[in-house]
């Protein structure tokens, strides 16, 4: 006869401890252990609490299953830059990126729906016309890319004001900044404080102030996505200050290079797992995670 489980063992504060006992590095094993645990709990535990345990157990089992040691690292996300040129050239780049596992496409507003027709992938673009992207990009054709000059007082920045407004409306927002000099680095930092993502593109890779941005935005709830053109740049971006950028935006038409960059991202982020939905938090590309 099965021994009874004390209700105290199933209180919220004790759930994680019990999960740790029954979750194993592989989902299948953890499910088998969970079934056993459910049978033990069935005598005197509410079904709702058992369901809560199942949710937490599956999440923890998946996290453990992604790394032999069960350690959790910071997952890296990959974007593809496909917002210039005609649709034919954009489509080829996007199709190749989908085959490689890229998670988000930066495209032009008039191609948002066309991108969605190609596959299940997040779409980012500026908000123009009827475009309804998953991620609203602010800074393209604005202050971020140098189309409009930066104001001397950043509190008057139209890009920052627009990003704040879109965020207040519940939209997921990405700031886009080309780092021309120190002033644009300062601008990028301020954009990062009001956006979900900060896309940075360097005019000279060797002097991109990525270290400064990572350090200044470390405590902010923003993902830094750095533009790269080859695997060497990607490796450097992902390893800067150990933590590295949260992801890269790939700008290449070379399928082999794209796959090498994606491999760097997977290797650097191995050990983490996306757990959006496990605890009610909204996932970004986790942010991807």
Summarize the SSE layout with pairings.
Blueprint: H1 12-22, H2 27-41, H3 47-65, E1 77-82, H4 87-100, E2 104-107, H5 112-118, E3 122-125, E4 135-138, H6 158-168, E5 173-179, H7 182-192, E6 197-202, H8 210-216, E7 223-228, H9 231-239, E8 247-250, H10 255-269
Parallel strand pairs: 1-2, 1-8, 2-3, 3-4, 4-5, 5-6, 6-7, 7-8
Helix pairs in contact: 1-3, 2-3, 4-10, 9-10
What tags apply to this protein structure?
289 residues, alpha/beta, TIM Barrel, 2 domains, 8-stranded parallel β-barrel, 10 helices, 41% helix, 14% strand, globular
Task: Describe it.
The protein is of the alpha/beta class and 289 residues long. The chain has two domains: 7-65, no CATH class; 77-269, Aldolase class I (TIM Barrel, Alpha-Beta Barrel), CATH 3.20.20.70. Helices cover 41% and strands 14% of the residues. It has ten helices and eight strands. It has an eight-stranded parallel β-barrel, surrounded by seven helices. Helix 1 (12-22) packs across helix 3, helix 2 (27-41) packs antiparallel against helix 3 (47-65) and helix 4 packs across helix 10. Residues 1-8, 12-34, 36-73 and 270-289 have low confidence and may be disordered.
How would you summarize what this structure contains?
With 289 residues, the protein is an alpha/beta fold. It has helices at 12-22, 27-41, 47-65, 87-100, 112-118, 158-168, 182-192, 210-216, 231-239, 255-269; strands spanning 77-82, 104-107, 122-125, 135-138, 173-179, 197-202, 223-228, 247-250. The protein has an 8-stranded parallel β-barrel, surrounded by 7 helices.
């Amino acid at each position: 006869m099965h021994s009874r489980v004390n209700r105290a063992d199933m209180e919220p504060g004790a759930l994680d401890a019990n999960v740790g006992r029954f979750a194993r590095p592989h989902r299948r094993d953890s499910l088998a252990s969970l079934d056993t645990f459910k049978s033990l709990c069935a005598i005197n535990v509410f079904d709702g609490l058992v369901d809560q345990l199942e949710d937490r157990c599956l999440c923890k089992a998946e996290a453990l299953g992604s790394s032999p040691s069960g350690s959790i690292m910071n997952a890296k996300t990959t974007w593809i830059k496909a917002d210039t040129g005609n649709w034919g050239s954009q489509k080829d780049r996007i199709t190749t990126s989908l085959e490689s596992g890229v998670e988000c496409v930066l495209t032009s507003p008039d191609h948002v729906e066309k991108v969605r027709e190609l596959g299940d992938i997040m779409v980012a673009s500026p908000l123009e016309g009827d475009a309804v992207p998953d991620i609203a990009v602010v800074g393209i054709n604005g202050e971020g890319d140098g189309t409009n000059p930066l104001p001397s007082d950043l509190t008057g920045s139209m890009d920052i004001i627009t990003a704040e407004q879109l965020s207040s409306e519940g939209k997921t927002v990405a700031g886009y900044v080309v780092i021309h000099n120190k002033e644009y680095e300062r601008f990028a930092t301020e954009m990062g404080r009001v956006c979900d993502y900060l896309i940075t593109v360097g005019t000279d890779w060797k002097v991109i102030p990525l270290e400064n941005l990572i350090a200044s935005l470390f405590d902010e709830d923003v993902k830094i996505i750095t533009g790269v053109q080859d695997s060497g740049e990607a490796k450097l971006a992902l390893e800067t200050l150990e933590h590295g950028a949260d992801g890269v935006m790939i700008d290449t038409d070379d399928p082999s290079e794209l796959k090498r960059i994606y491999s760097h991202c997977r290797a650097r982020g191995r050990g983490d797992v996306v757990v959006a939905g496990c605890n009610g938090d909204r996932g970004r590309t986790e942010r991807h995670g």
